[in-house]
Structure formats: C-alpha cells, structure tokens
Amino acid sequence: MTGTEPSALGPGLVDVTLNGRIRDRPPAAFEAVWERWAEGRPAAPNQWAALPEDLRSEWLWLTEKTTGPDRQGGVFHLDGRHVTGAYGLHCALGEAVNGPGGYYGRCWHSLADCLDGGFGLVPPFTLVWHDFDVAGRSFADDLLEGKPYAEAVVERLRHWGITADLR
C-alpha cells in the first residue's frame, strides 16, 4: 500500500493505492444494488427486477453466499415475468430454488456447478417456469450452442434430470 484518499463513494470510506495504482472504482450505479443488500438478504421476491441488465449482474455477485445445505426433490416456481436477459434468468432461477436473493448460478458455467451440488438444490426436482414466453421474446437472439439462451438452459436442466414445465 502506497497511499489512501477519501473515497468518492461516501463519507468514512477510503480508496487505497496499491503499488502506485488506484483500484478501479465501481460505477456509482452499483450503490443502488448494495443499498438493497445493506441490511441483509432481501425478504421479498423480484427486488432485482427493476434493475437494468448490468446491475442484475452485480446483484448476482451478492447472491453467491445465500445457499443452504443441499436438498433434493420438490416443485419450484420461477417467476418469468422479468426474465429479459441472461442475468435476469439467473436472478429468477436463484430466487425460485433458494428464495428471495437466492443464488443458483450467474452464467451458463456456474449453473452447471450448481446442478452438481453445493448450492442448495440438486436434481431431480421440478421447475415450473411461468411466463416462459417473455424470455423467448426478450433474448431470442442471445444464442448458446446454436439455441436461444433460455432454451439452452431448459435443455441443460432437463439433461440433469429436472422436470422443466414451461408455461
């Protein structure tokens, strides 16, 4: 550490200079996400829904430590009304299986990690995806393995033994 200075993020905060470089400051917009988490994990669903896609990504970073012990079976409902991009899909999926502010992957690769265990729910289980058509319309051009991202996720879930009921 070679120096400190008051932070632009607020009183009582300090930016630290390491080896002559000031660490990149996060965008000020991230503060809105952090403030929602300041008093702990959200208690109500869809608190991420009003965020733009880049802030949904930040939301997902905060959810990573919100899983409980692995369990199996059951029926879980994904509220698809706000699934308008890949990060929204992962926000909604985490909430469906691990409650408000829950985590179940933040991208294609971390979803596979979750399905393998250690993130609160392992297959088999049933996922009822309400308003699946919103994802189909919203990011149909976001392709993964030649398929729209939402369809590729459904295919992956089914491959792992999850019953995906699209409504």
UniProtKB/TrEMBL annotation:
<dbReference type="InterPro" id="IPR035905">
    <property type="entry name" value="Barstar-like_sf"/>
</dbReference>
<comment type="similarity">
    <text>Belongs to the barstar family.</text>
</comment>
<protein>
    <submittedName>
        <fullName>Barstar family protein</fullName>
    </submittedName>
</protein>
<dbReference type="InterPro" id="IPR000468">
    <property type="entry name" value="Barstar"/>
</dbReference>
<dbReference type="Pfam" id="PF01337">
    <property type="entry name" value="Barstar"/>
</dbReference>
<feature type="domain" description="Barstar (barnase inhibitor)">
    <location>
        <begin position="75"/>
        <end position="137"/>
    </location>
</feature>
